[in-house]
Design a protein that fits this description.
Keywords: Cytoplasm, Schiff base. This is Deoxyribose-phosphate aldolase. The protein is α/β, with parallel strands linked by helices. The chain has a single domain, classed as TIM Barrel, CATH 3.20.20. α3 packs parallel to α5. The longest helix is centred in the middle third of the chain and has 15 residues. The radius of gyration is 16 Å and the shape is globular. It starts with 7 loop residues before the first strand and ends in an 11-residue tail after the last strand.
Length: 214
């Protein structure tokens, strides 16, 4: 069984998130050498100050959570501030409302603008899609738009299903990473994802009681 710790990415998105929980997650990342930690934009600067010189994980944040409805100018400012505060992985939520307004190219234009800004600062550009609202053709097309914009990672928000995750991986070229939300997955399922080439296993409901013995 492969060691999975360096594939695990914790995301803290609970509206009642406390600073104690934040530092518990940071400690878990440091002690277990996890792949990354994603925090709300408000917390990026503080986490960067206490990140630790030997911590090689990526410090990420989410722009436009949860449905990407903000104007592109607002997302751009939030991205600039996150990069300045020390984020190394910027996750941009796809604007679902703009996506389903099919007479425009708003989503494509937004990806191009933000992707250029993020890559200029040598950070990772992740596009996140709330796939709960997408049928298969729309999800495939949204992934294609993100890939065409030069994305580094695609992240799929949806309740975990091993077969669906493996199917989505088949749509993505080897040059682009896939992040799978895997709350509730068992160790065998996690190993299947890694064997299939999934780069990040995302735990979105992390609690301080969780342990990682992979």
């Amino acid at each position: 069984m492969q060691n999975l710790s360096n594939f695990i990415e914790l995301q803290l998105s609970n509206p009642k998130l406390s600073i104690e929980e934040m530092y518990s997650a940071l400690s878990t990342v440091q002690q277990n050498k996890l792949a990354g930690l994603i925090v709300p934009p408000f917390w990026v600067k503080k986490m960067r100050r206490d990140w630790g010189t030997e911590n090689t994980a990526t410090l990420g944040t989410v722009i436009g959570f949860p449905n990407g409805y903000q104007r592109t100018e607002v997302k751009q400012l939030e991205t600039e501030l996150a990069l300045k505060d020390g984020a190394t992985d910027i996750e941009v939520m796809l604007n679902t409302s703009a996506w389903f307004s099919t007479q425009n190219n708003w989503v494509k234009i937004e990806f191009a603008k933000l992707g250029k800004l993020i890559h200029q600062q040598e950070a990772f550009f992740t596009v996140a899609i709330d796939a709960n609202y997408f049928d298969t053709p729309n999800l495939q097309q949204a992934i294609k738009e993100a890939i065409d914009a030069g994305v580094d990672y695609i992240k799929i928000y949806k309740p975990f299903d091993i077969n669906e995750s493996l199917r989505i991986k088949e749509w993505i070229p080897a040059s682009v990473g896939l992040k799978v939300c895997a709350d509730g997955a068992n160790q065998q399922e996690l190993q299947k994802l890694i064997n299939a080439g999934v780069e990040r296993i995302c735990i979105n409901n992390f609690t301080s009681s969780q342990t990682f013995s992979f």
